[in-house]
TrEMBL record:
GO molecular function, one term: nuclear steroid receptor activity
Keyword line: Acetylation, DNA-binding, Metal-binding, Nucleus, Receptor, Transcription, Transcription regulation, Zinc, Zinc-finger
Nuclear receptor domain location: 170-245
Family membership noted in the UniProt record: Belongs to the nuclear hormone receptor family. NR3 subfamily.
Compositionally skewed regions (Pro residues) per UniProt: 118-127
Biased composition (Low complexity): 34-45
Organism encoding this protein: Petromyzon marinus (Sea lamprey)
Region (Disordered), start-end ranges: 23-151
Compositional bias annotation for Polar residues: 90-104
An example Gene Ontology CC term for this record: nucleus
UniProt protein name: Estrogen-related receptor gamma-like isoform X1
UniProt biased composition (Basic residues): 46-55
UniProt domain NR LBD: residue ranges: 278-502
Record's subcellular location: Nucleus
Length: 503
């Protein structure tokens, strides 16, 4: 059986396709507001709904998320060509719909991609009672693997993951994260940062940071520190040589003085510091593409226990999957792969990518797992939730990366490598996938040589952690699939679809 929910994100949607999607949704799926949030009413065995799903290729459900409008970078130059995945999901809303509480069916997403990908609102109060839940798999129901799904697949309806992969718009400014207007001075950037860089070079302007030369540069805060903004321009690769200095009187002479580090208190000592070395281009793109924080928002009205924990984690995982699909489109070289190969990589590696995020968030903690910023589990809460074995396994991975002092640049690169190092048997173009892997491996090696010169084998040690990551991800998939089979809690369609792709 084909995965009937992930494919819509990846496939092209023309008017005929939209009509078919809407009609299919009308006949085969529950209305958006029809869902039962009381999981205790659904705790009966669901073994008779056990379906084995495999990578479905370009005609399966995942491919519909990927197909529509190619948006991940086909080359290094395009690596910032989309909005950051943090903008693609309502990371703080408890649902990946932007407006309303209904289920984000592919038809809805196809008809209103602009609403889906609007910037996230402010984080909610964690104590907000109740979660707005999209339509999900209910034990004994037809969503996610029953007759409705089969009928939808027969009508050519793309899957949820595929649709998402195909509708991600617009490139980002590598300096501040705003929407880029094009490539300026060698880097995808917005008009504001383009003009700022040009003014700085042509005016021979020198800045000083009032703080520690580490100010965060974002769309909202890009004017707060000109020194750090200019340094960010240089770090992401803006070329001073690209600015036409002959339009300014004496510009050539000024430019000569400007690049003389000895005469510039701003450029000299700071560029000599190892921490300020320009980052590898691929890693720079991955840092910009890194999603925003997510919130689990457990329902405070539900008593602590296994059902609450599993419901919270399944809901969180479904929203994380939306973000992961969006993030994958930003990995340099991912979008040049065929639709089928994009789907195969995601179906194979999504849990590894998800868990690596949990692990990295947990590094500052002692024997606690940070599933989300508002959902941290220690040994006792893991025991109460029935998650002690799984969480203990993940904590082994946390300790491994903690011993290596994993930095953020290595984290984002390892995530991309985990995505590319799929064990899928359904890869169509092995050469293209190999080129994707090679570029990411080289980026990790280059970062190690530049930032960790005292550890010549560091990149190799980091790559050696990937088998343990895959083993841990396999255990997590098996755990959540057993939850599905036992009918303990309802599951969202995308999460269910991706689980079944791994079985």
């Amino acid at each position: 059986m084909e995965l009937c929910f992930v494919e819509p994100i990846l496939s092209c949607y023309n008017n005929q396709y939209l009509g078919r999607m809407s009609e299919s949704r009308h006949h085969h799926h529950h209305p958006p507001h029809h869902n039962n949030s009381n999981s205790s009413n659904n705790n009966h065995n669901n073994n008779h709904h056990h379906h084995h799903h495999h990578a479905s290729g370009a005609d399966g459900p995942l491919s519909a998320y990927i197909k529509t409008e190619p948006s991940s970078p086909g080359s290094l130059g395009d690596a910032a060509s989309q909005p950051s995945p943090g903008e693609l999901s309502d990371a703080s809303s408890g649902s990946y719909t932007r407006h309303g509480s209904g289920s984000p069916t592919p038809a809805h997403l196809l008809q209103a991609p602009a609403a889906l990908y609007s910037p996230p609102p402010a984080p909610p109060t964690p104590a907000t009672p109740g979660l707005r839940k999209p339509a999900r798999y209910e034990p004994g129901g037809g969503l996610g693997g029953g007759p409705a799904a089969a009928a939808a697949a027969d009508e050519g309806q793309p899957s949820k993951c595929e649709y998402m992969l195909s509708t991600l718009p617009k490139r980002l400014c590598l300096v501040c994260g705003d929407v880029a207007s094009g490539y300026h001075y060698g880097v995808a950037s917005c008009e504001a940062c383009k003009a700022f860089f040009k003014r700085t070079i042509q005016g021979n302007i020198e800045y000083s940071c009032p703080a520690s030369n580490e100010c965060e540069i974002t769309k909202r805060r890009r004017k707060s520190c000109q020194a750090c903004r200019f340094m960010k321009c240089l770090t992401v690769g803006m070329l001073k040589e690209g600015v036409r200095l002959d339009r300014v009187r004496g510009g050539r002479q000024k430019y000569k003085r400007r690049i003389d580090a000895e005469n510039s208190p701003f450029l000299g000592p700071q560029l000599d510091q190892p921490a300020k070395k320009p980052l590898n281009k691929i890693i720079s793109h991955l840092l910009v593409a890194e999603p925003e924080k997510m919130f689990a928002m457990p329902d405070p009205a539900v008593p602590e226990g296994e059902v609450k924990a599993l419901t919270t984690l399944c809901d969180l995982a479904d929203r994380e999957l939306v973000v992961i699909i969006g993030w994958a489109k930003h990995v340099p070289g991912f979008s040049v792969l065929s639709l089928g190969d994009q789907m195969s990589l995601l179906q194979s590696a999504w849990m590894e990518v998800l868990l690596l995020g949990v692990v990295f968030r947990s590094l500052p903690c002692d024997d606690e797992l940070v599933w989300a910023d508002d959902y941290v589990m220690d040994e006792e809460s893991s025991r109460v939730a029935g998650l002690l074995d799984l969480n203990s396994t993940i904590l082994q991975l946390v300790r491994k990366y903690k011993s290596l002092a994993l930095d953020r640049e290595e984290f984002v690169t390892l995530k991309a490598i985990a995505l590319a190092n799929s064990d899928s048997m359904h890869i169509e173009d092995g050469g293209a996938v190999q080129r994707l892997q090679d570029g990411l491996h080289e980026a990790l090696q280059e970062h190690g040589a530049s930032q960790h010169a005292d550890e010549p084998r560091r990149a190799g040690k980091l790559l050696m952690t990937l088998p343990l990551l895959r083993q841990t991800a396999t255990r997590a998939v098996q755990f959540f699939y057993s939850v599905k089979l036992e009918g303990k809690v309802p599951m969202h369609k995308l999460f269910l679809e991706m689980l079944e792709a791994k079985i």
